[in-house]
Specification:
Blueprint lengths: L3 E13 L5 E14 L3 E5 L6 H9 L6 E6 L2 E2 L9 E4 L11 H11 L4 H14 L16 H12 L6 E5 L7 H16 L3 E6 L2 H7 L2 E6 L2 E7 H5 L14 H13 L14 H14 L17
Parallel strand pairs: 3-8, 3-9, 6-7, 7-8
Antiparallel strand pairs: 1-2, 1-4, 4-5, 9-10
Bound molecules: adenosine-5'-diphosphate (ADP) and magnesium ion.
Adenosine-5'-diphosphate binds next to strand 2 and helix 1.
């Protein structure tokens, strides 16, 4: 079997108005492949065609031009959807069901037995962190973060080999975002293929193996995140703390070799990292407060 889980060829989508007149060219001649086992990111500002692309993959929309093969089938083949999980941009789950009932409902759609549904439901509730009181509350009482979690659990009910996530981290706070990113990375560990869309650059950079940048329905850049972001003309060396004398010596060695030191600095961590450490520290030691300029230690709490 081919290594490509998705093959998109010259895919275009024109939305028409009520009278059938062309209104918006949402996607213009998109071609790309997604390989088995990778996390692929569709990146682009609002309105660039990400949601349209995902819906075309699922066969929820009909393309104006071009073709899609997904899991070796054409997009309009509905049977393939049994092997796909989908988290839509907007939640469409029933507001009056609780988490258990929601997953049970979707389990029935996939014709799972009662015992199978129960087992899968317990497992998924645990996996997305909705155990405890949350699982018995109606979804209408859920926060945005909890809604995204139950949405992900729903998308995974049929243990799909391909998971399509439309803006999985949108509207989540940093803790929710970190959890969601970890859950996406776990999917890759479990051998799944993931396609996710986002306009949040950091989230895409953190989890995706390869990305495509869309702008106004056109593919502008595609490649591995590592290769796209790596600067080959420079070398970075990270060492333990160096004193002035050692730095001078290093500089001299480099000069002899025709190289130059462009910048000497201490590495900074990300704000996300600092935030998560602060929260962890506060959980561990509730009364503790940091002086201005002081910060939680680097060690995982
Ligand atoms: N049902 C629709 N009817 C008409 N235009 C649409 C429809 N859905 C999306 N569009 C338009 O198509 C373009 C791409 O939209 P979309 O795929 O939702 O982008 P993204 O998910 O990247 O924000 C936008 O200009 C949007 O307004
Ligand atoms: Mg969208």
């Amino acid at each position: 079997m081919s290594d490509n889980v998705i093959e998109i060829r010259n895919l275009s989508k024109v939305y028409r108005d009520f009278w059938g007149r062309p209104k918006v060219k949402a996607l213009n001649s998109l071609s790309l492949e997604v390989k088995r086992g990778e996390i692929f990111g569709l990146l682009g500002p609002n309105g660039s065609g990400k949601t349209t692309t995902l819906k075309l993959l699922l066969g929820l929309l009909f393309p104006t031009e071009g073709s899609v093969r997904i899991l070796g089938r054409p997009a309009h083949d509905v049977e393939k959807n049994e092997r796909i999980g989908y988290l839509p941009e907007e939640s469409y789950l029933y507001r009056f069901l609780n988490a258990d009932e929601t997953l049970d409902f979707y389990g029935r759609l996939f014709k799972m037995s009662a015992a199978e549904r129960k087992k899968r439901c317990d497992e998924l509730i645990q996996r997305v962190g909705l155990q405890g009181g949350a699982r018995h509350r109606q979804l209408k009482e859920y926060s945005k973060g909890m809604t995204r979690r139950i949405g992900l659990a729903q998308a995974l009910i049929n243990d799909p080999e391909l998971v399509l996530l439309d803006e999985p981290t949108s509207g989540l706070d940093p803790l929710g975002t970190r959890d969601m990113k970890d859950m996406i990375l776990d999917l890759r560990k479990a051998g799944k293929t993931v396609v996710m869309s986002s306009h949040l650059l950091a989230d895409v950079q953190d989890v995706c193996d390869r990305i495509a940048i869309l702008y106004r329905g056109e593919l502008k850049v595609i490649g591995s995140v590592q290769e796209l972001l790596e600067s080959r003309e420079e070398t970075q060396i990270l060492t333990s703390q160096l004193d002035e004398a050692t730095l001078k010596e290093v500089e001299q060695v480099l000069q002899r070799r025709g190289a130059s030191v462009k910048k000497v600095s201490h590495p900074t961590s990300t704000l996300e990292d600092l935030f998560l450490r602060t929260v962890a520290e506060s959980e561990a030691r509730p009364g503790r407060r940091f002086e201005p300029g002081e910060r939680p230690s680097n060690e995982k709490a």
